[in-house]
TrEMBL record, chains A, B:
This is Proline--tRNA ligase. It is found in: Cytoplasm. One of its GO terms (molecular function) is proline-tRNA ligase activity. It comes from Leptolinea tardivitalis. Residues 15-281 form the Aminoacyl-transfer RNA synthetases class-II family profile domain. PROSITE patterns: AA_TRNA_LIGASE_II.
Length: 477, 477
């Protein structure tokens, strides 16, 4: 609860983030190092995200299934790059039912291998393709440095795994799902993102190409908020996923995978949060509206509550919380729900009852400027319009913030300078050595090579060689 | 697919079950012994069950959260009976990130311990109570003999964990959730169940009382389809979950837990399935209706398809599948969807187009008797009514089947006899020795002591001593 002030973002961004999550009861630390408990308020946000994404996956032809948590260790070794990427991060089960296991099992860090194995059993003919399956699951990666939501040993995500007859179809699927993520991020979470291709260095272990959406957080650091991988025939060959084509010839399938995780909750917190706490996007917020009755005594209460009940009924189409706790003051409630980021607060006091009005306070615009007094008639429409305005408002604010912190440095020295407080959007020759030098000098990595480029060519910001694409450099979570 | 006939239930019930699940593409065996892959068709059924249950949990005041998969091994040892029950079934992680762990971690077999630990952090005052949290999760129990859905190393479930200020509230919660399960089972899954108290022998490890719903399968064996546990203060004491009461005195809370798992999918399969395959309850079936166009040539096709499209639009409120595959015959499709248990099949052929009718075939009544020809007008209403009839019909069929196979034996010899092909509903003195003798002699266990008893008293069917309650004995899954 809101007993003490949060640290401000400028004082200590990292402490602001950690304390906010715990005080707003989004998540807590589990007894095992690096694991988290997602508390009901945080999980309600994730459930809204899940439902929205799940609908989008189903609309694009996907179905859900559930693949096992435990994978034979040998499976990971079948794809060379994959095992190199994931071996250091594995949690390994060596004992089951009191016995040492003959073959150790890994807890899935991701499921390409076991799904590849199943697809090789299920896919026989071109008629079986495409296979478009998603699963909502928990995965475990043994990370050394952890942060609630951003990087935890266990996290929750969806992972889509598709198999196609042709390279073209698989490539289209990869980009289709990247677009689904981008649209979700911008329309639902109000988080503007850059869609782009990762450099070879930053690619998923085992992928031919990785695409990502990248978002700017409130401290200007970047966060990779979703990825979509074109896996080529790497896993098809490792797991022998073949089909008989129209000419009765055996062919390897082409596969993709794509994932978005509870890390995205961290993105929402850091993209919109302010020094008072969370600012949640109306389309995903567990509560869109909190209604607070204001009264000093029983007489006032008996005037106010019928209007509260009437408004509650009229606003039943929204996710509404009526906070009628008697043991705390209205001021305490204001702070509490501000901390928890409820987009819109409604107050009803005795004067409102007389005038037939209520007060609305926007979470995204503090103080007087965000407050308005409106008639009780047409409350649902008024509130709906206001929630739309808030949704648009916080998106635009994030777009403006990003715009103010993306730079086009003219020299390598300037690049190093701008990366202290923003992103650089610069020509890059594509050479991993140039990427490594920037990382060495600034801790910034290439985020992605955006799909939307203005074209033309230039000189690599690092080595000066000709470059045909621009890339975003940024320090990242 | 339906290339070969299924074994009949009377030939080999167990093979009927195993083959049906695989052929209907409900689930498949994972590479790790005893683990399963729930395929899209099976998962769609589980998702419908989840949504329905989740709504019921929320209506009774519960919220969802997510607790971690990995639990320090020492946690399980804090509640003596709990560890005795679960120790033999644990999967243990001993290596993380390439290092031997200082303390081994168990993969949760159930979450009372880790949730108890978190509740002890969160609960301070009577104002924090009750805590009513549920989670949808995967758990792992190292079972030796496994069956798809019924008993797998990893399974999916929900586990509710609540904490209360008083014993009475916790007991009420335990029975409230038992009723939620029973209502779900009967109204949604059309599976009649007996609500009752488990014997001490059959109690959950660490519970003061365990209640269950028990269902009869098509081979007359019993299946425990959901459980609700009153945990007393066992876990509150083991994990030091205390609150300050109104008088500022520290008190231990009273807790409950309750769970229903993917095992219930097995119950649906075995309660309703017949020799042609699955028979799914309309309220939960992934597809409620399959629409099959019937035509011999392009001319007929061009007549039939507009009516199919029109019906598809009119029936958009149902979960409808139009099967317009051209590479297989209508007969193949009939068998295929019968195997998959779609409750209602609609056929539209050239004659139907002329007459303004379509044909409906109920999955639960084979052949001519289940077939009717109805006008295309008011299709949605006709189909809705028919689905309701099917839902009621399969429930009644299951009730009748159970009635025909529950016996009231007059002697111990008769008890042994009836248990070969049904359940016995008998007086029992409550002594574990009598229970053990029945198990030894017949493999049947006490299922539960039903909450709804006719009262009175009698003599224990085993030892003849006075008994005040009747119990169900049955062989069980
Ligand atoms: Zn360069
Ligand atoms: Zn007895």
């Amino acid at each position: 609860m809101a007993e003490e002030k949060l640290p401000t973002r400028s004082e200590n961004y990292s402490e602001w983030y950690n304390q906010l999550i715990q005080r707003a009861e989004m998540a807590d630390y589990a007894p095992v190092r690096g694991c988290m408990v997602v508390r009901p308020y945080g999980w309600a946000l994730w459930e809204n995200m899940q439902q929205n994404l799940d609908k989008r996956f189903k609309e694009t032809g996907h179905v859900n299934a559930a693949f096992p948590l435990l994978i034979p260790k040998s499976f990971l070794e079948k794809e060379k790059e994959h095992v190199e990427g994931f071996a250091p991060e594995l949690a390994i089960v060596t004992i089951g039912g009191g016995q040492e296991l003959e073959e150790p099992l890994v807890i899935r860090p991701t499921s390409e291998t076991v799904i590849g194995y199943m697809y090789s059993k299920w896919i026989k003919s071109y008629r079986d393709l495409p296979v478009l399956i998603n699963q909502w699951a928990n995965v475990v990666r043994w990370e050394m440095r952890t942060r609630l939501f951003l990087r935890t040993l266990e996290f929750y995500w969806q992972e889509g795994h598709t198999a196609h007859a042709t390279q073209k179809e698989a490539e289209e699927e990869t980009l289709r799902m990247l677009d689904v993520y981008a649209d979700f991020a911008e329309k639902e979470a109000a988080v503007p993102v850059i869609r782009g291709r990762k450099s070879a260095t930053e690619r998923f272990a085992g992928a031919k190409e990785t695409y990502s959406i990248e978002a700017m957080m409130g401290d200007t650091r970047a966060l990779q908020a979703g990825t979509s991988h074109f896996l080529g025939q790497n896993f098809a060959k490792a797991f022998d996923i073949q089909y008989l084509d129209l000419n009765n010839q055996l062919q390897h399938v082409w596969t993709t995978s794509w994932g978005l995780s509870t890390r995205f909750v961290g993105a929402i917190i850091m993209a919109h949060g302010d020094d008072q706490g969370l600012v949640l996007p109306p389309r995903l917020a567990p509560y869109q509206v909190v209604l607070i009755p204001i009264y000093k005594n029983d007489e006032e209460r008996s005037k106010v509550m019928p209007v509260v009940e009437k408004l509650k009924a009229e606003l039943s189409g929204f996710r509404l919380k009526v906070d009628d706790r008697s043991e705390v003051t209205p001021g305490f409630k204001f702070n509490d729900w501000e901390l928890r980021g409820v987009p819109l607060r409604i107050e009803v006091g005795p004067k409102d009852v007389e005038k037939g009005t209520f007060a609305m306070a926007r979470r995204d615009i503090p103080g007087r400027d965000g407050k308005s007094f409106v008639p009780q008639v047409n409350a649902a429409r008024t509130v709906g319009d206001m929630l739309d305005q808030i949704q648009t408002g916080i998106f635009q604010k994030a777009v403006d913030f990003r715009k103010a912190h993306v730079f086009d440095p003219k020299s390598y020295d300037e690049l190093k300078e701008v990366l202290q407080g923003g992103w650089a959007y610069s020509w890059w020759c594509g050479d991993a050595a140039c990427e490594a030098k920037v990382k060495e000098d600034t801790k910034a990595t290439t985020r992605n090579i955006p799909l939307d480029q203005e074209g033309g060519s230039g000189k690599c910001i690092v080595c000066g060689k000709p470059a045909s694409e621009k890339v975003y450099f940024a320090r990242a979570y």
